[in-house]
Amino acid sequence: MSVMSRDEKLSDGVNVNFERLTLLMKLLEAHVHKSKEQLVLSLNDDLGFYIPTTLQDPEGRTWPDPSNNRLAISFMCQHATNRRLVTGFDIEGYDELAGLAVTGSADDSCADSLHWMFAERENVNSTLSPMATAVEARLTKLEGWEFLDLPTGDSRIRMLVRPAAPKRSTDDEQLPSIRIEPATSPRKIGWFERLILRYSVRSQERELTEFVSQIQAMDLADRAHLLIGARIAARQLYEDYGWNPWKPSLVVRKDATATLKLGRLIKLLQEQGTNGRASAAYLMVWLHSIRPFYDAATPTMVNTAREMWALLLPAWSRAALIEPAFSSKKPEAPKGLNPNE
């Protein structure tokens, strides 16, 4: 009976803490890119916080939740042009929720780009109590959000993002048969996204270098098959996500988490045996073609991606013997990755 009572108590506690945590997340999300004064008033009026309205710098301070002493929040104002606008939040757990922490942030240009990132830990559950572990597990299944769990170098990125609804582009953005359109300038991404990308940039450079080395070891026929597979993968990405990988900067502009999603797809495919690993290689062409268009990308990544296409383009004519679509267009890399630029 005592064990059952303990389990029931844990379950009730999880429900209470989860509901309060998600209520905080919802209210904070509603105040992205609004003034810090508006946020303070809402926290005080709607959730019973006690934040002095005369305080000039409420941001960066920790404010305990008056309805749940196991939670506290803080917020940041790091907008590039207006330091009174709220751009991010931290929610931390204490006592029974110790170790639980989520950080939310939005791109300067788009409030809809809010992401929630989980605290980094070497062992996901190593520092969490049973209560915090259960609440975090519930968060990964939060309705209306997509949970990403991606390896990044020696660590992992675990985050909640709004799922991008598959959508068609306008006619001039359709993905034709190896047709390459001019790309728009790279999208400016927010400090939160830059944090993720800069954190993993060395790992990304290493992965790209290793992939290029693998292509160098291929003969012309294998490179031709890689090109054909990449073309098929590009069409699939367009169908599933509305991305045109031949316009990598446009992909970045539409979806700031594109490479994170590609990384997850590649990991899943690599776990599916020989056929899956082949499909993963096709997607890796696009992963390494899109990454250089993020602000955090280094010149090394750009140059190495161009080197990758310098190895692939000579196989274009060989690919045309297998796939007629390649014969109707001269060899050309995605915009911005032409080896001769």
Terminal-residue CA separation: 73 Å
Alpha plus pi helix count = 11
What is the 3D form? elongated
Oligomer: single chain
Low-confidence parts: 166-192
For the sheet with most strands, the description reads:
7 strands, antiparallel
Number of strands: 7
Helix content: 40-55%
Kindly list the characteristics that best describe this protein.
single chain, alpha+beta
Helices and strands in order:
Blueprint: H1 2-30, H2 36-47, E1 63-64, E2 71-76, E3 88-93, E4 101-107, E5 110-118, H3 130-139, E6 146-152, E7 155-161, H4 191-199, H5 201-216, H6 220-241, H7 248-254, H8 258-270, H9 273-290, H10 299-312, H11 316-322
Antiparallel strand pairs: 1-2, 2-3, 3-4, 4-5, 5-7, 6-7
Task: Quickly describe the structure.
The chain has 341 residues and is an alpha+beta fold. The protein has helices at residues 2-30, 36-47, 130-139, 191-199, 201-216, 220-241, 248-254, 258-270, 273-290, 299-312, 316-322, and strands at 63-64, 71-76, 88-93, 101-107, 110-118, 146-152, 155-161.
Write structural notes for this entry.
- The chain has 341 residues and is α+β, with helices and mostly antiparallel strands.
- The protein has helices at residues 2-30, 36-47, 130-139, 191-199, 201-216, 220-241, 248-254, 258-270, 273-290, 299-312, 316-322; strands at 63-64, 71-76, 88-93, 101-107, 110-118, 146-152, 155-161.
- It has a 7-stranded antiparallel sheet with strand order 1-2-3-4-5-7-6, sandwiched between helices.
- β3 and β4 (101-107) form a beta hairpin.
